[in-house]
Amino acid sequence: MPELPEIVSRAREMDRALRGKTIIEVKILQPKCLNVPARRFRTVLAGAGVREVRSRGKWIFVDTTQGWVLLNMGMGGEILLVQREAMPEKWRVSFAFDDGTALALNFWWFGYVHYAGAGKLGKHAMTSQLGPDATEFTRDRLQQMVTGKRGAVKALLLDQSRMAGIGNAYVHDILFMARLHPLRRLETLRQEEVDALAHAIQAGLLPSIERGGAFYEVDLHGKRGGFTREDMLIGYREGEACPSCGTVIEKIKTSSTSSFICPMCQPA
DNA sequence: TATCTTGTTAATCG
DNA sequence: ACGATTAACAAGAT
């Protein structure tokens, strides 16, 4: 499940590895992940030079001389840089470059490989609606975002149009560190709690970015991220002891997603 | 086999 | 307009 730390890491790796290369051929095994006809996608990008790769939220933006390639890895997958004749077993879209390498994209549920013309990035609805990266929020900015809003704090964190990059993996530890229950209403948050949340967002994401993302995703060469299961405080630790107070960690349903909480540290 | 799951949009209701 | 909920969609693991 690629979230901001994994996507930031992949985009950095891609920027370093792909910048200056030219796409010579695009292959598409799964046209449904595209937003334009496969033929158009292939032809418009053939011959395109990679200028830069960057990210916002869970999206990777590849800036080429012939427009933008916009990637969303959905619930998980791999972006592998391989020799063209050594493709991995599973891939859905591939880009072959002029130096004999290829980028093989795979995802197993709901990935997107979109195209936006040069200068037309603003017309791509899914990415133009993204809020600022979660890592960009200062305490003041978060307070502004919370003021006048209603609803559950978890819903705010997961709402990509308000704050981009957090998904249902990192959110557990973020809320735990802020000592907030996922369903706590925004309108009841005191300023100290908003401050704690702002700090928790940074504390929940930055260590993983520094280590190249979480262990359950891999880098361009197939190497797992350095943020391990042991680095998680309560996420996916149902039945284990809370690292702060020892209470048994619970897995609860919060609207449509699951949440892991310490019922003592994060009272409803 | 049945159930679960990390994302995102669209539709709907209050 | 906003918030809450649900369904749907292209798999894979257990």
State the main characteristics:
alpha+beta; four-stranded antiparallel sheet; 7 helices; single chain; 268 residues; DNA-binding
Overview of the structural elements:
26% of the residues lie in helices and 22% in strands. It has seven helices and ten strands. It has helices at 4-18, 38-45, 125-128, 139-146, 153-158, 170-177, 191-210, and strands at 23-28, 50-56, 59-64, 67-72, 77-83, 93-97, 101-107, 112-116, 250-254, 257-261. The strands form three sheets. It has a four-stranded antiparallel β-sheet with strand order 1-6-7-5. A four-stranded antiparallel β-sheet has the order 2-3-4-8, covered by helices on one side. It has a two-stranded antiparallel sheet with strand order 9-10. Strand 6 (93-97) and strand 7 form a beta hairpin. Helix 1 (4-18) runs parallel beside helix 7 and helix 4 (139-146) crosses helix 7. The radius of gyration is 20 Å and the shape is elongated. The relative contact order is 0.14. The chain binds a DNA duplex (14 and 14 nucleotides) through loops.
